[in-house]
Amino acid sequence: MYVQLRDTAQELAGILWREHTVYRERGGGVVIRGEHVRRWISLAPTGGKDRALLRAGRILDGGTTAPARSEVVVDLSAGTAELATICRRLLADVAAGADTAPGPSRAGRPKEKAGKREKPGRAARAVRPGRRPRRERHTSAGSWFVLLCVVAVLGAWLYSLFGGYGY
C-alpha cells in the first residue's frame, strides 16, 4: 500500500506544485509539503483496498504543520486528475479557513492602566462566562485555611517535642 501511496503522491505533487517535498510519515502515509504556498497534503492508508484518507492543512511559522483542517476518503483507482481536483478543493477549504481565522483584536478589552504593564511572554487568559476577571492577585480563603492547618500541625509537633515538663 505504501508504494501505491508514494507513487500517487509523487504524481499529485507534480500536478499541484512545482516546488514540493514528498516524505513518509510515522503512520505509514505520505505527506506532500508545498513550502511556498504554506500548505500540506497527506495520503494515509484506511485499511480498505485502493482507498486512502486525504487530509490537508497549513504550514505554520517555523515550518511546523498545523492539524488537518479538512479530510476526505478517496478511491485511489480514480484518475490522477480527479484526485488533483479533490486536493485543490481541500486546499481551497484550508485557504478559506485561514483567511477567516480571527486574529487578535483590541475590541472589547479595557484600556491598560498607565502603571500596570503585562509581563512579556504571558498569554492573556480567556474570560470565563459568569465570572468577572480578577483585578489583582490575592490569597483566597482556601489558601489561608491550608496555611492555618500547616501551622497547627507544626505547633502540635513542637508541643509534643518540647511541651512536656522534663524535655
Topology of helices and strands:
Layout: H1 2-16, E1 21-24, E2 30-34, E3 39-45, E4 51-58, E5 70-75, H2 80-99, H3 141-162
Helix pairs in contact: 1-2
Give a description of the structure.
The chain has 167 residues and is α+β, with helices and mostly antiparallel strands. The protein contains three helices and five strands. Strands 1-2-3-4-5 form a five-stranded antiparallel beta sheet. Helix 1 packs across helix 2. The longest helix has 22 residues. The termini are far apart. The model has no long low-confidence stretch (mean pLDDT 77).
Secondary-structure element pattern, one letter each: HEEEEEHH
Which blocks of ≥5 consecutive residues have pLDDT under 50?
Answer: none
Would you tell me the overall average pLDDT?
Answer: 77
| Strand arrangement across the biggest beta sheet | 1-2-3-4-5
**Main beta-sheet annotation:** 5 strands, antiparallel
User: In angstroms, what is the radius of gyration?
Assistant: 29 Å
Outline of this structure?
34% of the residues lie in helices and 18% in strands. The chain has 3 helices and 5 strands. A 5-stranded antiparallel beta sheet has the order 1-2-3-4-5.
Question: Keyphrases for this structure?
Answer:
5 strands, five-stranded antiparallel sheet, 167 residues, alpha+beta, 3 helices, single chain, 34% helix
